[in-house]
Write a structure and sequence with these properties.
Number of domains: 1
Shape: elongated
Radius of gyration: 23 Å
Helix content: 25-40%
Strand order of the largest sheet: 1-8-7-6-3-2
Structural class: alpha+beta
Distance between the termini: 44 Å
Length: 193
């Protein structure tokens, strides 16, 4: 069976290829590893014994800021009880039900594993070592509908090291790039005429 491109080769002048979804990760480089967190705490004059309280204070501030855009836009903040629930499907259902075509759809929260730092006693050394490892966090997911990339979401961890992730619809971005390219070509042909 011939592919679509092979069947219509005489009518096709080019093809765009890309990923279905784009995941763009990000992190603050300094606290992204144990030594960086140690250096950060030292520069901010936070002793290791106070790390837990300091980190909780930052987390609570970030969680409060996470709900502000939803409150300002009159959008719901939804806690997902189970990982079986599809955050994207729920967001699309909310957007359809409430007629959201552009802007913030909802903010979702859940508990999920993440890499983080903890301070805990070491009986052998009689010190409080800082250790990196798996923990649990409750990152907010901001689901949004935008004219260029379409449906997308951004996730940010509200606990050290505050990693982020933005997920875009790759097909929609390629379509927008194609439209921009065509508009640019049209402007060039107008200038040449």
């Amino acid at each position: 069976m011939k592919s679509f491109v092979q069947r219509h080769a005489s009518q096709i002048i080019g093809a765009l290829r890309g990923f279905d979804r784009w995941r763009v990760p990000g992190t603050l480089r300094w606290p992204a590893h144990e030594q960086g967190v140690r250096g950060f705490l030292s520069s901010t004059h936070v002793p290791l014994k106070d790390f837990q309280a300091y980190a909780l204070k930052l987390t609570e501030a970030l969680r409060g800021q996470a709900t502000e855009p939803a409150a300002a836009a009159g959008r719901p903040v939804v806690y997902l009880e189970s990982s079986a629930a599809s955050e994207a499907a729920l967001a699309l259902a909310i957007a359809g039900r409430e007629g959201v075509h552009e802007g913030l759809i909802a903010v979702f929260r859940c508990a999920e594993p993440c890499w983080t730092c903890k301070v805990g006693p070491n009986r052998a050394s009689q010190k409080l070592p800082l250790r990196g490892g798996l923990g649990k966090c409750g990152p907010p997911y901001f689901d949004d509908s935008d004219p260029l990339p379409g449906f997308m979401h951004a996730r940010w961890q509200t606990w050290f090291p505050f990693t982020t992730q933005v997920c875009l619809n790759g097909r929609r971005v390629l379509s927008a790039l194609r439209s921009a390219r065509q508009a640019g070509a049209a402007k060039l042909s107008q200038r040449a005429a």
